[in-house]
């Protein structure tokens, strides 16, 4: 198989802007995010920024679509079709907490932060964020229903309601951890969620 072509420089520049913008928005919120800080951290010129994005809002939309969405999807896509949905979910939770725990403790969940800040005031943000959450809910419910059909999970529960409950636990746990700045809080919530998932086993 031929080697993948290297990214063109404009693609590299755009990705660098998106990653630095995500970091700035995650730390400060969208409205307080500084374009000057994004340019400084990325090493990109203002002209290059406006070559790729018409304005700050367009940059924010792209961050949601291309950084926040994959960030969230990493937490549920591996569950679809797995041979052990509970075991996979628990292992995935441990891995993600190990990778992201410090940031979640400091800043919370980037999706939830933007929902709270921008969904009430900007329709473009609201529809994008709603789409991510809807896909998360639908994907998790699909994974649970498939596990029910395969005999991994008992059939006497509503997969849609269970998916909503799991997401509410995750987002609420991250919010509590951000408020308390205590890793024990998010660990406690994740243990409780793990106990709930274990109870769904067939």
Automatic annotation (TrEMBL):
DNA-binding residues: 34-53
Origin superkingdom: Bacteria
GO MF assignments: DNA binding
Pfam family, one: TetR_N
Record domain HTH tetR-type: where: 11-71
Keyword field: DNA-binding, Transcription, Transcription regulation
SUPFAM superfamilies: Homeodomain-like (SSF46689), Tetracyclin repressor-like, C-terminal domain (SSF48498)
Protein name per its UniProtKB record: TetR family transcriptional regulator
């Amino acid at each position: 198989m031929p080697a993948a072509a290297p990214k063109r420089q404009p693609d590299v520049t755009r990705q660098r802007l998106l990653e630095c913008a995500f970091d700035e928005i995650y730390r400060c919120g969208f409205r307080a995010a500084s374009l000057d800080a994004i340019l400084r951290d990325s090493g990109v010129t203002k002209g290059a920024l406006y070559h790729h994005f018409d304005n700050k809002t367009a940059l924010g939309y792209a961050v949601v679509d291309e950084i926040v969405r994959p960030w969230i999807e990493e937490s549920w896509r591996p569950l679809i079709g797995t041979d052990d949905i509970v075991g996979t979910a628990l292992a995935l939770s441990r891995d993600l907490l190990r990778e992201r725990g410090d940031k979640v403790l400091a800043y919370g969940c980037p999706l939830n932060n933007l929902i709270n800040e921008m969904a009430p005031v900007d329709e473009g943000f609201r529809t994008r964020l709603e789409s991510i959450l809807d896909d998360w809910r639908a994907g998790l419910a699909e994974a649970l229903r498939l596990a029910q059909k395969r005999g991994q999970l008992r059939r006497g529960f509503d997969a849609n309601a269970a998916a909503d409950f799991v997401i509410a636990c995750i987002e609420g746990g991250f919010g509590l951890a951000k408020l308390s700045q205590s890793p024990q809080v998010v660990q406690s919530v994740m243990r409780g969620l793990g106990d709930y998932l274990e109870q769904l086993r067939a």
